[in-house]
Write a structure and sequence with these properties.
single chain; about 150 residues; mainly alpha; two-stranded antiparallel ribbon; 5 helices; 2 strands; about 65% helix
């Protein structure tokens, strides 16, 4: 019997030889590119995830309801650090748990980006107010110069 990753209630997830062979066959049949290999290994060793994610190579993250495979390949390519964190912190040995972690990270990043945007807009409004004050002073001084 092989051991891979954590299991709630125990320190390791138990995987039978048949389960391991079936997961290898599913990965091989799924036409996964080489870029999946380190993530597949990390998921198995860290989170106990041995089966491939649902979906096929032609799925797109832009679909109305993207498959787990489409979401994960986008994370592999665009947010690998967030994916690594999600795998390491997965609460269950499933790709769905990893995706939940990715979505939580995305939401936190979105909130942080929104806050940065609000701060930037406040700074810009302050600059515009300051520029407006300077323009008013210049116009006032020109008006006084014309009156004199």
């Amino acid at each position: 019997m092989a051991y891979h990753g954590p299991n709630p209630g125990s320190s390791r997830r138990r995987v039978t030889r048949q389960q391991l062979d079936a997961s290898r066959a599913a990965w091989d049949a799924g036409d996964f590119s080489a870029e999946w290999k380190p993530w597949r290994h990390m998921a198995a060793m860290t989170a106990g995830i041995i089966d491939p994610p649902a979906g096929d190579p032609y799925d797109s993250w832009a679909d109305d309801s993207p498959s787990p495979r489409a979401i994960l390949i986008r994370a592999i390519r665009e947010t690998p650090k967030a994916l690594e964190q999600a795998i390491c912190q997965a609460r269950r040995p499933t790709w769905e748990a990893v995706i939940e972690g990715l979505l939580r990270t995305r939401d936190r990043l979105g909130e942080a980006a929104d806050e940065r945007e609000r701060e930037w807009q406040a700074v810009r409004r302050g600059e515009m107010t300051h520029a407006g004050s300077i323009a008013r002073v210049i116009l006032d001084s020109l008006s006084r110069a014309d009156a004199a």
